[in-house]
Amino acid sequence: MKGTVLGFYSMLLGCAATYGQQDITSIYLANPSFEEDATACTQDSPDAIYEGDEGLRGWNLSPNGWQTTSPGKALLINKECATDNGFGKTEAANGEFAYYQRFGWGSANSEMRQTTSTPLPAGEYELKFFSKAFAANNAATNATVTVSDEALKSLDKLTITCTNGSAGIMGTSSWTENSLKFKLEEESAITLSAQMSWGNGGSCIAYDHFTLTQLPEGSLDPNAPSIEGGTEDQVSSPTEGVISHEFVEESAMQQDLLQMLANSLTYAHNIWYDCAAPNSKGETCGYFKANSAGQSNEDGVRTNADFSMICAFLCKYGKGKVTLPEGVTWDLVNDMAVKPLVLNSKLLRTTNIGVPSAMPTTYGKVRFGPRHWHTPLIS
Three-class SS of residue 126? Predict the structure, then answer.
């Protein structure tokens, strides 16, 4: 009789989805708000857990309708139950009870899972639930909540990350509403799985008030074109006639690349600095500001070489072909090509000529004599 009623109800859902969404929680989800074990949760129950001065912590029960594994502490809690790490007490998001897991030092994994006993008809759905997730000592804990079909193909998933908590946070914070939306192409049972990965330091996650809603057809992608006649012929392609096998002319490609390099000079100009004084040979120097701006180390030397190479290339090949950014002239581009190399050649031990007085040290190794080549001079 139950199967007949469910089959008839599934048929009605197919009709209802045409006109509006339908709450189907009571048909497909068992114990969605963790209220079915309420009669077992009494103060003198053998499953009641009391710890320290804070007293009641909850009831060591696996909630009816759910398959659970415990990381060390897994409890049904109500507003009278103190949570760990001084995070305080919380009222349930719905009803009187919520499901709570907690782990301390080390690492662990746990899960809560439920598979519908009756297949859902093909259609579009939304699963919602509420959570609170907090950590102490920067514990890196998260939960991956997944909805999958009977072939265990993931239909949608989300990640809940424990944020750093504080005294009383479970009581003062609001429950977070989470949503998973999915589409079944054919009738299938679904599995809801929350897999927790517990980090070291103390963290907790509480769940409550799962709901399942069937959505009107097209809800998940209201702007998607409809396919008529069972083929794609009636749907216009966004790429046909736009993307083709034809290559861009080499000259056009070169021009675009040259202009792209010219556009980058806005950035180069913004980090360009003239040295305050010439080197000991009386030569003017300049540099591009890196983390080690103008200093005699890999960061300072190589940044100069890279930007100088771009400027030198544009000086040789770009004049008359590109438009320079506002505030940049060809004289400036020439300076940005030459002056960094003057500076680099003085900072390298392989040349070691005319080191600027403000930079008493030199950079690089001399392995094969004073004329050993060094890549920052390649440009």
Answer: strand
The per-residue pLDDT for 72 is 85
Are 73 and 82 in contact, with CB atoms under 8 Å apart?
no
Question: Read out DSSP for 215-256?
Answer: EPTTTT-TTSPPPPTTSSTTS--SSTTTS-SPPPPHHHHHHH
Q: What is the mean pLDDT of residues 254-270?
A: 91
Is residue 98 within 8 Å of residue 76, measured between CB atoms? yes
Amino acid found at 355: V
DSSP secondary structure letter of residue 86: G
Q: How many CA atoms lie within 13 A of 118 on its CB side?
A: 18
- Two tokens at 176? 């977070």
pLDDT, one tens digit per residue, over 284-310 is: 888 888 776 556 667 667 778 888 999
43 or 365: which carries more pLDDT confidence? 43
- Determine the residue type at 314: L
Rounded to two decimals, the pTM is 0.55
Q: 249, 256, 273: which is closest to 332 by C-alpha? A: 273
